[in-house]
Design goal:
alpha+beta; six-stranded mixed beta sheet; globular; N-acetyltransferase activity; Acyl_CoA_acyltransferase; N-acetyltransferase domain-containing protein
Length: about 230
């Protein structure tokens, strides 16, 4: 991710992620333009960590996919405080969902780390799916994490700030909410630490299972070492 492509990549995520992703649909995000606008703040903030990745169609120079990755540091509340300033309930709800799932397995304590790299949102434009783009984005993200863990500063600033090597992630984590991403996680050596049923979650009285139907029954919380 570079400054030149940031705005296009952030805008692309509406069509590539939030309008199709399972939890987003369960929360009614696709039809909530105000919430989607607030979520652009979130993807932009994640990109500022310098560890996000984009995929570009070389024939058109068009951004067709992105992995917005976030460096999470133990006991750092800045990100939570940022989200608490939002006004849109559906935008807040997806972040609350991610936080609740993350709380089911405290990676910092259980893995003995003080920093991790999180696949926050990985999205591909519909017309470019099933071509291996998502897997390539995930592989590139893992390589960024490995380089940082080895002491090689490969962070890319998107706002002109100088990004130091620290904080350095030791593991990479993800919530996989569809079968395709679960398959990618398995191929890339991720370990499942939590598996939850969609039917155990609801928003505004609507159970998630009523939205996903037979499409998928569970989502997973997974991680892998950056060695």
């Amino acid at each position: 991710m570079t400054a030149a492509y940031l705005e296009e990549a952030v805008s692309m995520m509406d069509a590539a992620f939030f309008r199709h992703e399972t939890v987003s649909r369960c929360l009614g995000l696709p039809n909530d333009t105000a919430a989607l606008a607030e979520l652009k703040q979130l993807t932009t903030a994640a990109a500022k960590d310098g560890v996000s990745v984009i995929a570009i169609d070389k024939t058109t120079n068009k951004v067709i996919g992105a992995a917005f990755n976030k460096l999470q540091v133990k006991d750092d509340t800045a990100f939570t405080n940022f989200v608490n300033s939002w006004k849109q309930k559906r935008a807040k709800a997806i972040v609350k969902f991610m936080a609740e799932v993350d709380s089911l397995y405290n990676f910092f304590d259980k893995c003995g780390v003080d920093c991790l790299l999180e696949f926050m949102f990985v999205g591909i434009l519909p017309e470019y799916r099933k071509k291996g783009v998502a897997k390539k984005l995930c592989e590139a993200s893992i390589e960024i994490g490995k380089d940082l863990a080895r002491g090689v500063n490969v962070k890319r600033s998107v706002d002109g700030r100088k990004l130091g090597l620290e904080p350095v992630p030791k593991i990479i984590t993800a919530i996989f909410s569809c079968e395709a991403t679960k398959v990618i996680g398995k191929k890339l050596g991720f370990k499942v630490v939590v598996e939850e049923k969609f039917e155990e979650y609801e928003f505004e009285g609507r159970n998630f299972a009523s939205v996903v139907g037979d499409e998928i029954s569970t989502f997973t919380l997974e991680y892998r070492d950056l060695k």
